[in-house]
Design goal:
single chain; alpha+beta; Uridine Diphospho-n-acetylenolpyruvylglucosamine Reductase, domain 2; Uridine Diphospho-n-acetylenolpyruvylglucosamine Reductase, domain 3; Vanillyl-alcohol Oxidase, Chain A, domain 3; 3 domains; 8-stranded antiparallel sheet; 15 helices; 18 strands; disordered N terminus; oxidoreductase; FAD; FAD binding; flavoprotein
Length: 494
């Protein structure tokens, strides 16, 4: 291995000569330690290095002090020990799909532990328990579970997302209304802690840590191995699109109100979202069953919204994953390299009042439609009386927003070039038009759809709500010096 060259511009600009010497010594100590422990790391300027430091969101690029190319749990453990010795923050990067580039630390100067080479999946067909390495991507996980035993877990739709960040902070997708969040299927985990020790956690072993990693895991340690329960993925699954043509604010207000009302009692077999873009709006989702069952379940909403079921295709579990994943190649590994340039934010809300619905629709028609960039607002029907997400007690895991009816992703991207300065105000104001006048307890934000502009205090409150105090106490017990720091993570209790 070669000694890394310190990125002076990113790390040292504007600091004193004493600080420069200290930083150089830290990097030297780090690379010496990694080399002595036989921990592989990327050579700066190599193809692997360029791939591993490349952000999904090209608006947010950060420079690590080193990138460990972990292949084993021992590599992770030794890398954490070296970060401690050198006084450098450590960050696990699993899929590298973070909207705020948190897999690179969310700032310059971290030791990035690239996990995507650790992607083994082993299903025990006698128990239905899958043992999954922490760098596995969702598409690879889905393929392996299905091929090894026709099994699945609930998870999101993008095959390149890493299971680590996804399952440790929620893991919502178009199976969640039926089967809950990805973290609801976690029954155990192996975690490298900040002191470089390795522990197992489950409902009966280190239960506080187990609670914390299921919702705020990125702040607690590095999960090298998950144990997931799984469900039988046999049967028919119908994915669908129903365009709506609301030409006026009045019609859109009636339509969005009808969608919200439908969400309260939507059948458990139906998973759905309202997808709003500048030039079109769709009701879309996945139904557990055939087209006739979908038609019966959806018809009341179609009648109320004047929508037409334009596409409904029935297939097996893998067919719907390929459709929503946008690719026939689900089995993504270390070489995955998708990029976009965008700004995003998120919301959870309880039922919107008439005035809040009017604010939302008014901003959509009178302001957002004038934005010519490639933006969208995705409103997932997250809760309701039949939702598997909401039917788990809010205090069972660190995921704090189970009792919220709607979940929003607000996303604004450019197809080429740089994102414009000040462009984020479009989505920021969209969100604030929804929440204005709300009680603080009536809205929150999803950490897997982070708003990169939040300060740490606001981020903690918005992402973890009523669970924050307990999470800070757990953080203090497992990472008192905040080795696994990132700009919007949990801070140790004072």
């Amino acid at each position: 291995m070669h000694r890394l060259t310190l990125p002076f511009v990113a790390l040292l600009g504007g600091v004193t000569a004493v600080s420069q010497v200290s930083a150089v010594e830290s990097v030297d100590a780090l690379t010496d330690c990694l080399t002595a422990a036989s921990v592989p790391f990327d050579e700066a300027g190599s193809t692997d290095y360029d791939l591993d430091v490349s952000s999904f969101n090209l608006r947010l690029n950060y420079t690590p002090v080193a990138v460990v190319a972990a292949e084993t749990a021992q590599h992770v453990q030794d890398a954490v020990a070296c970060a401690n010795e050198a006084g450098v923050k450590a960050t696990a990067k699993c899929g590298g799909h973070s909207y705020a580039s948190f897999g690179l630390g969310g700032e310059d100067g971290h030791l990035v532990i690239e996990m995507s080479r650790m992607n083994k999946v082993v299903l025990d067909n006698s128990t239905g328990i899958a043992t999954v390495e922490g760098g596995t991507r969702l598409g690879h996980l889905a393929v392996e579970l299905f091929n090894q035993g026709g099994r699945a877990i609930s998870h999101g739709t993008c095959p390149g997302v890493g299971v680590g960040g996804h399952a440790l902070h929620g893991g919502y997708g178009l199976s969640s209304h039926t089967h809950g969040l990805a973290l609801d299927w976690v029954v155990g985990a192996t975690v490298v802690l900040a002191n470089s020790t390795v522990v197992n956690c489950s409902a009966t072993e280190n239960p506080d840590l187990f609670w914390g990693v299921r919702g705020a895991g990125g702040s607690m340690g590095i999960v090298t191995e998950f144990r997931f329960d799984t469900f039988d993925a046999a049967g028919n699954f119908t994915y669908f699109v129903a365009p709506v043509r609301w030409a006026t604010e009045e019609k859109a207000l009636i339509g969005v109100s009808a969608v919200q009302e439908f969400a309260k009692t939507m059948p458990a077999e139906l998973n759905m979202r309202l997808f709003i873009a500048r030039s079109f709006t769709n009701i879309e989702g996945l139904y557990y069953g055939d087209k006739a069952g979908l038609q019966a379940a959806l018809q009341p909403l179609l009648n109320q919204t004047n929508a037409t079921l334009a596409m409904a295709t029935t297939g097996d579990w893998m067919a719907q994953l390929k459709y929503f994943g946008g690719s026939s190649n689900l089995d993504q590994g270390h070489g995955y390299a998708e990029h976009q340039t965008f700004y995003s934010t998120s919301l959870y809300t309880k039922e919107l009042s008439e005035s809040q619905l009017q604010n939302f629709v008014g901003y959509w028609f009178n302001t957002a439609k004038n934005n010519t960039r490639d933006w969208y607002v995705q409103i997932d029907l997250h809760g309701g009386e039949n939702s598997a997400v909401s039917n788990v007690s809010v205090d069972d895991t660190a995921y704090a927003h189970r009792d919220y009816l709607l979940m929003y992703l607000l996303y604004d991207r450019v197809d080429s070039g740089e994102y414009p300065a000040g462009g984020q105000t479009i989505m920021e104001n969209f969100a604030s038009n929804i929440t204005q006048g709300m009680e603080r307890a009536d809205w929150g934000m999803y950490v897997n759809y982070p708003n990169s502009g939040l300060n740490q205090e606001d981020a903690q409150a918005n992402y973890w709500g009523s669970h924050l105090e307990r999470l800070q106490a757990i953080k203090k017990s497992v990472d008192p010096n905040d080795l696994f720091h990132y700009p919007q993570g949990i801070l140790p209790a004072v």
